[in-house]
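Recall the central idea of this unit: under ordinary conditions, the amino acid sequence of a chain determines the structure it adopts. In this exercise we apply that idea directly, starting from the sequence alone.
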Amino acid sequence: MSRLAGALLAAILAGVQEAKTPEKVDLLQGLDFKKDAVLGKWAFEEKVLVAPTVRFGRLQLPYRPPEEYDVRLVAERKAGADSIVLGLVGKGRQFAVVIDAFAKDPSSGVDRVDGKAFPDNETKHPGRVVENGKKVEIRVSVRKDRLTVTLVGKPLVDWKADWSRVSLFEDWAVPDTGALFLGAWTAPWHVHALELTPITGEGRRTR
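Accordingly, the structure predicted from this sequence is:
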């Protein structure tokens, strides 16, 4: 093979590889708290998103996800002993993943499955998983038939998903039922990163 042909082949392969690499979406970009804050005072301190310390504090993200996607959340609980919540969508149905809820008998999981809250359905992960004052990386994988959640690389949820079984508790509701959202419950959470990687289908910003 000539040098020219080799160079052309390398360029083609590089292009194919680049095309296969999905572009990440920064979900913290483009937020407008006057429009997106559903409950509680959300704010940026420099580049860190600070959640309110209220019950059912939530922020609608101006983004509708594709059919399959990954989410990466880097967050830190500064004090207290309660949860951060990721509002997700599976096959058009909104639901929530709750991380580290309750001071007593703490647990994490999917809220809700068959109308049951996460401590009472098969996705429950018992025990405290977040240490205050330390950043944690939470990764969520939403697929056609599976949902996985890991925290610092350790599995929290591995659920063979039936999206017809999920729903959203009414007190976590946001105006756009097809959008992602972020929630917090009474504890001061700082969000350092929140990004989505499309896998199949196309997501879109709603603003």
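The two ends are 50 Å apart (CA to CA).
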